[in-house]
Amino acid sequence: MAKLDPPRPDTRRIRTEIRDDLGGRRILIVEPSGDLPNTLNNLAGGAVTIARFSSLTADLLMTTAPEVVLSPLMTTDHDILDLAKRLEELGFQGALRAFCPPLPNARVILTEVRQIWPEGDFDILEVHPRPD
After folding, report:
1. Contacts of 38 (CB under 8 A, 6+ apart)
2. How far apart are CA 127 and CA 11, in angstroms?
3. Going from the N-terminus, what domains does the chain have, and what CATH number goes with each?
4. Span 6-14, mean pLDDT?
5. Are the beta carbons of 44 and 24 closer than 8 angstroms?
């Protein structure tokens, strides 16, 4: 019997859905960049902590108790695969969200992260550029 792939999550999110996904939650933002979605401004009811990838430890996760870790898909010193590996090693049980401009094929990255962190809650928040 052929093994079926799990249903692909909808990675084509719009700005308001980012707010719905993250609003009211404890968020750890790893290596925020200038591309940090403006929709994260004024999130109601949540707590936001910002950290460098190099400072991501079990103690930091225990102290901040994030429900969601948010990071750019790629930075100058790590990418989302490195972050997923680190979170898996640290036993993180929350959600991991990468943000980036729209991708031609997000499924490739979703598959790679699931190979590294099969039990993890991972998705990509594709942030569309603002219309001029």
Report:
1. 15, 130
2. 10
3. 47-132 (3.40.50)
4. 40
5. yes
How far is the CA of 126 from the CAs of 40, 47, 94, in angstroms? 13, 22, 20
pLDDT by residue (tens digit) across 66-121? Answer: 999 999 999 888 999 999 999 999 999 999 999 888 888 889 999 999 998 888 89
Amino acid at 120: G
Tell me: the pLDDT tens digits for 17-35? 444 456 677 889 998 765 5
Q: Report the alpha-carbon distance of residue 76 to residue 91 in Å, rounded.
A: 25
Closest alpha carbon to 70 in 27, 39, 34 = 27
Residue count (the chain):
132
1 Cβ contact list (under 8 Å, min separation 6): none
CA dihedral 15, 46, 103, 105 (to 10 degrees): -120
Pairwise CA distance, residues 61 & 46, whole Å: 16
- What is the pTM assigned to this prediction? 0.75
Q: How far apart are the first and last CA of the chain?
A: 51
